[in-house]
Design a protein that fits this description.
It contains three helices and four strands. With 92 residues, the protein is an alpha+beta fold.
């Protein structure tokens, strides 16, 4: 599975649109970037995943995207794949 080209939160939203994964915005950062959340319905105990909290750790963001593509569990999922959009942009 090839990793997507994600450099900022707008690339993330474009990828989610391309993969037809619905998302919503929890609000905006102080810099005006949206904080994206993906919710998948299910039954049982919910699973919460956040990633993208540190600029120098992009692996979690990409792991989250791969989980989104392959989520086949009955449990509800709440995911914030890019918790710090401003910091993630600083990675480059």
């Amino acid at each position: 599975m090839k990793l997507p080209e994600i450099h900022n939160v707008h690339d993330l939203m474009a990828w989610l649109d391309q993969e037809q994964i619905p998302y919503s915005s929890l609000g905006e950062t102080a810099m005006g970037d949206p904080i994206v959340m993906v919710h998948k319905d299910g039954t049982g105990d919910p699973v919460m995943i956040t990633s993208g909290a540190h600029a120098g750790e992009p692996a979690g963001v990409f792991a989250s995207l791969m989980i989104l593509k392959s989520w086949k569990y009955k449990n509800p999922l709440y995911m914030i794949p890019l918790r710090d959009p401003f910091g993630f942009q600083g990675y480059e």
